[in-house]
Amino acid sequence: xxSFTYQNPVKVIFGAGTLAQTGVEAAKLGSRAxxxxxxxxxxxxxxxKIIGLLAEAGVASQEFLEVTPxxxxxxxxxxxxxxxxxxxxxxxGVGGGSAMDAAKAIxxxxxxxxxxxWNMVYASHSNITAKPPEKALPLMQIPTLPATGSEMNMxxxxxxxxxxxxxxxxxxxxxxxTAILDPELTYTLPPFQTACxxxxxxxxxxxxxxxxxxxxxxxxxxxxxxxxxxxxxxxxALANPTDAxxxxxxxxxxxxxxxxxxxxxxxxxxxxxxxxxxxxRHGINHGTSLAIMMPAWMNYFKRIKPAPYERFEREIxxxxxxxxxxxxxxxxxxxxxxxxxxxxIPGIVEGVKTVSFNAEGVLASNPxxxxxxxxxxxxxxx
Length: 382
Ligand code: NZQ
Ligand code: ZN
Fold this sequence. Notes:
This protein is α/β, with parallel strands linked by helices. It is about 45% helix and about 10% strand. It binds 5,6-dihydroxy-NADP and zinc ion.
């Protein structure tokens, strides 16, 4: 097993009905909250409850409801202005990864001394000029979509509409002080979002399982455990969106898959790096981008490095069945289904090279992915 340093300071309050603790917990963080969420009604009921709970606890609040998926830095910049105008002393993210990541970037943006907020972003792995934030307003996260684990990690994934790029901010100050994980908030998720969330959460541990250290008993059991939990409970939640047990299992599995427990000593996200380009260039949502990448990646690398893929096939299911499982959940598993053709591949490769190829000219992975290999993987994904 590899050596590692691990730290995760997030206080997690988990379980059905825990939303009720929002006011008391929020009052420990500040007295003026900026609430960052979507504005089109999907979580309105939750927002109304949160505002009421804050008021009861004597916390003033201001909503910023401009979050859209793959949060653009331009929107985050407006959020910072709203936070400053309101004199917010802490930030609450309510929603999926996009809302929580926007909340993180806004909380850091308020105190950011280096100008353009895009400077916070690791926009090139070969020439790292990012100036990550060192300070942020205190953060509370209230996830309504189990997927990204943003509630318990130090990452914020953001986009630039102008640059057609998507990458991440990574900084200690982005850890939430408190995360309230109430599975009841996920009952309203439409099947597509439920499925995409589960698939994304599988990808977080699968990336580490297949690309990470070859010998690590507990970590591999943990990674496979997260996958098994999602494979078992996702169809149940899709069939019955208010199944309390399934929603609870999905929520905790998603958080645990990317809060560091499944990956100490490993940090591999090559499929995500390609997925980000599928999103920024072709508008493919995050979960679908991974639903397409995972089977293609596994089919390609099984020939080169069979061991982890054979174990996946033994302990989870054959790769072909996994692809069928994703399709049964209602998510596309090929680029063609999303209108991407072979002629788009050079542009996708260029996008991955621009952001994610390292100084050695490869996509960091185990084994490293060259430009030619990436072309072949994308052909496999067509
Ligand atoms: O648009 P509406 O109708 O409001 O739908 C919302 C939202 O747009 C809907 N939704 C969320 N909670 C709901 C709900 N609808 C009904 N009931 C609820 N309870 O879901 C739509 C999608 O939300 P979004 O936040 O975009 O989804 P997700 O959680 O999948 O987040 C994706 C973003 O997170 C980033 C992705 O790259 C992407 O930008 N990631 C963040 C990570 C991190 N911070 O560690 C890691 C991940 O790998 C990922 O990269
Ligand atoms: Zn993801």
